[in-house]
Amino acid sequence: MRVCYFSKCYKELYSAGSKAKTDMEQIMCDLGYRNIGFPCLVCSNKILGFVITLLSMIKVCFKLRSGDILIIQYPLKKYYTLLCNIVHYRGAKVITLIHDLGSFRRKRLTVLQEIDRLQNSDYLITLNDSMSAWLQTKGCEVPKGELKIWDYLSPAIVLNKIEPATDYTVVYAGALGYNKNRFLYELDRLPRQWHLSVYGKGLEADKILNKEYFSYNGFLPADQLISSVQGDFGLVWDGDSYEACTGNYGEYLRYNNPHKVSLYVRCHLPLIIWEKAALAPFIKEKEIGICINSLEELDGKLEKLTVDDYFKMKSRVIENRMWQMKVVINPKYNFLTDFIYHLPGCFFKDGETIYQGRNILKKYDIQGYRLIVKRFKRPNIINQIVYSFFRRSKARRSFDYSLEVQKRGFGVAD
Asked: How many other CB atoms sit within 10 Å of the CB of residue 82?
């Protein structure tokens, strides 16, 4: 049995939609899943992009084998139902990873049409419990699991400040058009102590009256934003009003996992999020942000927040950036924390390979230090179970043994 996927032809790689999908393709590749379509391509020509994606799907249909599993990133527009039918005809199964529901926000499908489409899948990976429950109530009986939060791959090093200034700066990154995020244009009527720093495209500056509350920084590619952003919090808010997340875009936060949440975490920014958002329970559980019903409440919340409280919150953002992986860092090398945390996402793209066999050794020059990083071969399924429950991994044993050798007076790599 093979686990397979395929890549689309993307119009560009910087938007939240394409970034989430290309990151998932990279993660699937790293996990050993097989791309049986074309490699990831970028084409700004809409018609040519359509043709390339169609040809990639045709290749998938010929490459599939009986017993394979194909992961489809949804939405796939016109192709989805046809592709699912061909996959099943070939004796394979479909796992659908949902990025967005067209019937809920953009209304491009009716709810019934979307449910009928998704019923063609053998398994759904939804964004969160709320989305799973919504689909279930609308008649979608396909087995489901939840993603919880997006990964965000980037080799960028975070350089923003650790402690806040006297007045907090709140960062908002995303689409800035009046029709999508009208609340931004109402904020100039809200007296407040915090400053808003905005990144993205489409800001209609002529509609903002009190510009002293705003800093507009234009659009920055993700890696540049991560390495240069200056702020204290990342704001997760959509819709028509600062009093609550309203309108189609605002209400969608009840079921959506905005990709900007993962971007802010990657920027080491604690979060400010709507209390009724699907991700609010996650933010509370991890203690990495503030949940509010209205932006009118934010001044009061920030006034009660001490510098020590903020520092602890930010530290949890940094420490918990990879919630599903246990990371142990020698205290002598805490200054390399950001490099260490982004290694899984950029190991194959960055660094100089000095040995490649059963394991891989790479050389990096970081902050004046020459580092050698060893990536152990992925263990087989039996060893994965052994290392999870019965025995320490090779990486853990290497770390522990080097400390023990040093204690006994011998020189050895840390």
From this structure: 13
